[in-house]
Write a structure and sequence with these properties.
Helix content is 50%, strand content 21%. It is built from seven helices and seven strands; from the N terminus they run H-E-E-E-H-E-H-H-E-E-H-H-H-E. The strands form two sheets. A five-stranded mixed beta sheet has the order 1-4-6-5-7. Helix 5 runs antiparallel to helix 6 and helix 6 packs antiparallel against helix 7. The protein is globular and about 60 Å long.
Length: 202
């Protein structure tokens, strides 16, 4: 189920890219009228939830409740922070066939509001067998930079992230944020015991 959800998420993102291209063409046809940007924000987590009719006998509502639901919603909103489209928790990557099927890059380790423990979050970018050589090289370089970042080798991490940006050939908000954090830690090193967790207040 998890692999299918990811595959469908990637299809949704591709549809949005197609719409974006069509939007530009439509704008040209409609005398320069502009349209608001359409950006997909998908968050995926797997875990236990409560599902069913909830409430009193005279007022029922079918719904889903639980920590896993809340984390999925948080991941969805975090896409805006990182400039990503499909963020997943580490639990998703542990599901059968996911890691071997999809190309993904580690984005951060965060403690979202409402949770006490940290979660590694990654962006799923493509199905591995469909990914271009450029995208695969970019992801590999990005993940090498993340290893250096968590190993507190911030100067080397910056160089690696900048190399990844060159491979990608376009602006990448997630890499920009990581470089900003590296520069901050070079100037003000993190305390002993730092594990890379970014505690989010909102």
């Amino acid at each position: 189920h998890t692999a299918r959800a990811l595959a469908q998420g990637l299809k949704v993102i591709q549809c949005f890219r197609t719409l974006k291209s069509a939007k530009v063409k439509a704008r040209d046809v409609l005398s320069g009228k502009n349209f608001p940007a359409i950006v997909p924000n998908i968050g995926l987590h797997t875990g236990m939830v409560f599902v069913g009719n909830m409430g009193a006998s005279d007022r029922l509502k079918y719904g889903v409740l639980g920590d896993s639901v809340n984390l999925s919603a948080r991941l969805s909103r975090l896409n805006s922070r990182y400039g990503t489209s499909l963020l997943v928790s580490d639990d998703v990557l542990q599901e059968p066939t996911v890691e071997e099927t999809f190309l993904y890059r580690l984005i951060d380790k965060v403690a979202v509001k409402g949770r006490t423990h940290a979660t590694k979050i990654s962006e799923v970018m493509a199905v591995k067998k469909e990914a271009s050589e450029q995208l695969t090289s970019f992801v590999n370089q990005h993940n090498r930079g993340m290893d250096l970042y968590f190993d507190r080798q911030f100067e080397d991490a910056i160089k690696t992230f900048e190399n990844a940006m060159e491979i990608y050939g376009q602006r990448d908000r997630a890499l920009e944020l990581l470089c900003e954090k590296c520069r901050k830690f070079i100037e003000h090193p993190p305390p002993a015991g730092w594990d890379g967790t970014d505690v989010l207040k909102a």
